[in-house]
Design brief:
The chain is mainly alpha-helical. 78% of the residues lie in helices and 0% in strands.
Length: 143
């Protein structure tokens, strides 16, 4: 699967699973119920979905320019780290506002989610590439 269809399937699957994970993980760490944490998870998902589309477009544009094709461990780790850092910049203010907590508490909560999602992002992308194949940008050209 290639092109826009691949990007849409990737983003929707990633975010659908993420909403469930974030809702469940936030419950014990906040005084808010499932409806509130679920709504926050959905809002964060919208932020993440938009970031996912933009970030992956930039990453694949960079990847197309690389001499060495494929997705090495280092390239996958860089992808996950850069994705999560950018997402944190977008979501920390949202978490602080929604939960009515200070910036420091929002940063700590986001750091916990970031650690969880670095592993999730790495694993999800690895499984996604195994199931659907590598995108054209990461495939070796045939001679």
């Amino acid at each position: 699967m290639q092109g826009p269809r691949r990007k849409i399937v990737h983003a929707v699957l990633y975010e659908a699973i993420a909403i469930v994970v974030v809702t469940v993980v936030l419950l014990p760490f906040t005084e808010h119920g499932a409806a509130s944490t679920g709504a926050l998870s959905a809002l964060l998902s919208v932020c993440a979905l938009l970031w996912n589309m933009g970030f992956n477009a930039m990453f694949e544009a960079w990847e197309r320019q690389q001499v060495r094709k494929g997705r090495t461990l280092a390239r996958r780790a860089a992808h996950a780290l850069l994705f999560e850092f950018g997402l944190a910049v977008l979501t920390i203010p949202v978490v602080a506002w929604w939960l009515g907590i200070g910036w420091w508490e929002a940063v700590l909560l986001d750091l916990g989610l970031m650690l969880l999602f670095m592993v999730y992002t790495f694993g999800f992308n690895w499984v996604f590439d195994r199931v659907f194949g590598l995108p054209a940008s990461a495939q070796a050209t045939s001679s």
